Amino acid sequence: MTLQQLLRSADTSLDETVALLSDLVRIASVNGGPEGPGNESEVARLLAAKLAADGVASQLLEARPNRGNLVARLDGGSAPSLLYMGHTDVVPAEDAELWRYPPFAGTVAEGYVHGRGAADCKALVACETMALLILARQHVPLAGSLILAAGADEETGGQHGFAWLARHHPEAIRADCAINEGGGSPFFVGGRKGYLINTGEKGRLEASLRLDGKGGHAATPWAADNPIERLPELLMGLRRHQIVPDLSHPIFEVTSEVFQSSLTRLLQVDFGDLSRSERGLVSALRGASRMTITPTMLLGGVKSNSIPASCSVVCDVRTLPGQTAADVMAEIRAALGKVESVQIELQETAEPSESPYPTPFSQAIERATAAAVEQPDLLWIPGLTSGFSDSRLVRPLGTTVYGFAPQSADPDALTPEGIHGRDECMPIESLRVTLRMLVALAWDMLVAH
To answer: 89 an active-site residue?
Structure first.
């Protein structure tokens, strides 16, 4: 079996991959909010049935009822092992009436698969499942083992998913190398194409900023101290605060060499003025350059005719590798300046983490991607995932993990949309590219040549 034969098998399996993704989207495995507590076991059972139809055994490992993780493997020899990883839970769809297509219908239209989870992260899970099945169907002899792990609960931290697997079933998911969500955005410079490969991810904390005052009746505001009136000062302090950029990540050195342009310009240019092909790279640069503190929720008051004694602003905080809660506290205090009576509480959700780069694994990804998109001279830039993922839970097992699910390298191609928002969808062309890359990566790493 040659690489070209495997790639042709991937191409002929594209319709099957689209159908699998559509089926996965139809399962409302919503994690959090009023719509449900995960229900990832139903996704795992669908995947298990798909694998079993081709004689591939799998395990359903549940941290608790309906919070299921699926693990399957093709055993090989003593060569380095490869883990395909992804998650099966999704965020709430909120008001389904506002979507172009129903969020849990799995509609295939206009070159996309539409629905909640189509891009985050069921597309990757579908491609990984199909890549493993292609190798199984072709009876490709493996020199190293290939493992598929579809985990629960990523959207709220992974405690019922990869964190639980790493604690209770480490032998099921331990591998030398792993591929996960988080990277794969293309960029274009000087007529050449390139990709971002994410080598690590930022940490996450939740900051609650409570303004205290004195409650009272809304009809006599002079007798109270309304903390809501101080909210604008607090919010403007956060908005105006300039966090000093940290340009120590390898992305900045490589970007300077590739683009031969000012990093300052790339970091300060108005994001709305960028072309679609530029936004992925500039967003990655900004995310890798600084801590972010973003207000996301306002809490205060219980009745319209009562002045509350306190109100709160909840912020999403993303930290760079090496930054601590003390660094976050220092930035928040600097931003708030002279705002009075503010109580700050921090809760850590995920620690930052990263894998070494470059490595033989990253070089195998580069070769596999070049084969997948038929472009031998691709440019490569290491990135940092702004959001947390399950990669941080697998790295302590000794696994080198990169976030990489490549989109099409055509600058006019459709791109994923609506992740964590309305009208989420995944381009079918990007499914094709990701599937081809995964098959080529397994062939490069696990098949004796």
So the answer is: yes
Catalytic residue among 35, 128, 153, 154: 154
The yes-or-no answer to whether 3-198+352-446 and 203-350 have a common fold is: no
Beta strand 292-300 pairing with 379-385: unpaired
Domain ranges of the chain: 3-198+352-446, 203-350
In the residue annotation, 233 being an active-site residue is answered as no
Query: Rounded CA gap, 449 and 437, in Å?
Result: 18
Closest-CA residue to 316 (of 332, 301, 339): 332
Name the class of domain 203-350. alpha beta
- pLDDT in tens for each of the 449 residues of the chain? 899 999 999 999 999 999 999 999 999 999 985 455 789 999 999 999 999 999 999 999 999 999 999 999 999 999 999 999 999 999 999 899 999 999 999 999 999 999 999 999 999 999 999 999 999 999 999 999 999 999 999 998 899 999 999 999 999 999 999 999 999 988 887 778 999 999 999 999 999 999 999 999 999 999 999 999 999 999 999 999 999 999 988 888 888 877 766 677 778 888 888 777 677 788 889 999 999 999 999 999 999 999 999 999 999 999 999 999 999 999 999 999 989 999 999 999 889 999 999 999 999 999 999 999 999 999 999 999 988 899 999 999 999 999 999 998 887 788 888 999 999 999 999 999 999 999 999 999 999 77
Using DSSP, how many helices (H) and how many strands (E) does the chain show?
A: 14, 19
Residue 420 near residue 218 (C-beta atoms within 8 A): no
Q: How big is the chain, counted in residues?
A: 449
- Which listed residue (35, 89, 181, 354) is catalytic? 89
Domain 3-198+352-446, CATH: 3.40.630.10
